[in-house]
Amino acid sequence: MSILAWTWILTGLSFALYIYIAYAARAKTTGDFYAAEQSVPPILNGMATGADWMSAASFISMAGMISFMGRDGSFYLMGWTGGYVLLAMLFAPYLRKYGKFTIPQFMADRYYSNGIRVIALICAIFVSFTYVAGQMRGVGVVFSRFMGVSINMGVIIGMALVFFYATLGGMKGITYTQVAQYCVLIVAYLVPAVFISMQFTGNPIPQLGMGSVVTAEGALKLNDASTQGKYLLDVLNNIQLDLGFKEYTSGIRPRIDVWFITMSLMIGTAGLPHILIRFFTVPKMRDARTSAGWALLFIALLYTTAPAISVFARTNFVKSIHNVKYEEAPSWFKNWEKTKLVAWKDKNGDGIMQIAKGAWDKPDTKNEVKIDQDIMVLANPEIAKLPNWVVGLIGAGGLAAALSTAAGLLLVISAAISHDLMKGIMTPDMSEKAELWWARGAAGVAVCIAGLFGIYPPGFVAQVVAFAFGLAAASFFPCILMGIFNKKANKEGAMAGMIVGIIFVAAYISYFKFVNPAMNNAQHWWFGISPEGIGTVGAVLNFVTMYVVGKFTPEPPQEIQDLVGSLRYPGKLVTPPSAGH
């Protein structure tokens, strides 16, 4: 069967499964909608958390970024997985013991202020929409390439599916749908990696295959007999040097920047609202930490495979088209040309495709090939000439990754509007039935806005990802950490810290990303820290501001201090007072 047929079959079966699960687990109460009635087993919550986290960025983009960045891309792996260690140790059990539905609600009660609740819900909505834009666009790209429909129609189909199970099932439906989506995406990610690892090295374990020697069959696959018996990474390093690039295993980013980016990604991950709310869904405090451990295991399956896929994809990509006549270009290149994510410009008129350093469309460089790094994972099975069913499977996996994260993010937006804004501030005496209608309505509106972002993406979608992690690192992480472990942290300090952290990070990223992008290089960064790593500095400023302001303002009421004490020690939780003391 063709790639298109396999993709429709595999995607259709997976979509039917998602719809059935969403209907069977539909929410009937606000407890169902926001926290799945706190009844999700830890292992399933860990799997759902993995699907929630492994977005289109992780599934589609991460290996592509590493394939172009080489060793410098390792901070994505360390930061994004390290964040779950922080979650398991510092946040998960205490937030579960607190037992409410949203992070803004925790902030409002802990810091006895609706003002900080408003700040928190604005940040939650901004961070969530930042991510959703990328997810919906990823859905459109997968549909466009693998299913023969336009990008815009793909976005609309994705909107319809997410609208159904996000508005009908809420957190309960989303959770069990995400369990199924995790199974689909991890199989889709691992199967091509195992195939290609066997092709190159004869080792079925990709994580080991990338460090193994090339077999005779692998050398034949690369059309280069001299590669037989050499380590695959050495082969790739030599390919890079021949093309005028740095060795793949060398890094060019300043060490201080790598450290700050890694730390920003870690604390940003630990402060992301759509991840934090997952720990409200398990039955007990102990289960929250257990589910974080399971999530780390399930995420590690993909994240430890990503470097291997990066090596395989980069090697295959260069070997398949460099110094090849355009008329003889492999079918995968011609297929992806239709999406305009790859292109070729014959600069010297010889009809041969050349890969080199520099932009493909600039006359002063020798590079003639454009390739969007986001297609590396999706195109990898085609480049390696794997069976059509494997190519179809990667399409189904990419859709599962994008839709699972989109659903989680939309729930955060829905809860921020219905529970934190309408119920928490505007209409406190709202009935549960009315709140549930607000929640579903907000989710529906959010889906439509997310779809518009996918159809008409702002030109800076890729750039504002730095905003998401920077804001989460500089706002949520310090205030939640101090709220759990410091009885003396007060509302004045928390609000001032959040505002200082947010303004600093937003100003720094805006200047280098949007206002003056020509200055976005290590020579002009503050102490050599890039916009991607500035969230760490923002978090430090938040901590310092909270401490200093807290020293000159009244201590929290005694009942708040008792609440903090009861959060961290065995026994019954002290009932928190209403926000706005």
Provide a descriptive summary of the structure in words.
There is one protein chain. This protein is an all-alpha fold. It folds into 2 domains: 3-223 and 246-312 and 388-568, Up-down Bundle (Sodium/glucose cotransporter), CATH 1.20.1730.10; 234-245 and 319-379, no CATH class. It is 69% helix and 2% strand. The protein contains 23 helices and 4 strands. A two-stranded antiparallel ribbon has the order 1-3. Strands 2-4 form a two-stranded antiparallel sheet. The model has no long low-confidence stretch (mean pLDDT 84).
Which keywords apply here?
581 residues, two-stranded antiparallel ribbon, Sodium/glucose cotransporter, mainly alpha, 2 domains, two-stranded antiparallel sheet, 23 helices
Summarize the helices and strands and which ones pair or pack.
Elements: H1 3-24, H2 30-35, H3 42-53, H4 56-69, H5 74-98, H6 103-110, H7 114-146, H8 151-201, H9 206-209, H10 216-221, H11 232-242, H12 255-270, H13 273-276, H14 285-303, H15 306-321, E1 324-325, H16 331-337, E2 342-344, E3 352-353, E4 369-371, H17 376-383, H18 388-426, H19 432-455, H20 465-485, H21 491-515, H22 534-551, H23 558-568
Antiparallel strand pairs: 1-3, 2-4
